[in-house]
Design goal:
By secondary structure, the chain is an all-alpha fold. The protein has helices spanning 2-6, 9-33, 39-42, 50-66, 71-88, 90-110, 132-148.
Amino acid sequence: MFQALSNNYILCVSLLSWLAAQICKTILNFILCGELNWERMFGAGGMPSAHSALVCSLTIATARQYGLGSPFFAIVFVLAAIVMYDAMGVRRAAGEQAKILNQLLDSWMQDEMDLGPLKNGKRLKELLGHTPFEVLSGALLGILIAMLFPIK
């Protein structure tokens, strides 16, 4: 089974692009923040977008293997558009809302209000979506990897 999966050009290119983006994201976060945060290796959000890298490499690999006129290309192209639109839209908006809610909770905690179950210190996840630049960077990374990865 592993051999069959490892011989799957489209799957290998897609997963390699995701991994490359996650590694880049972890390294960039380390450079900017000065600490190694392993959550960046698996978490959503940040620079570059691993979702965009994965779906763009999936799209290019499918085009290379089956052609631009194939129904497979049409499906993955539409999927890629939806994923990248969602990353910049709904997921980014949810992250911005989480940031504001966390600020409100911090403010209330400083005022020593009794927040009941919110006193446990849990914060909402703020890094959910991406800026257009992060999506574009991930897309370009995925396209580059798919173009350089040899077809089996």
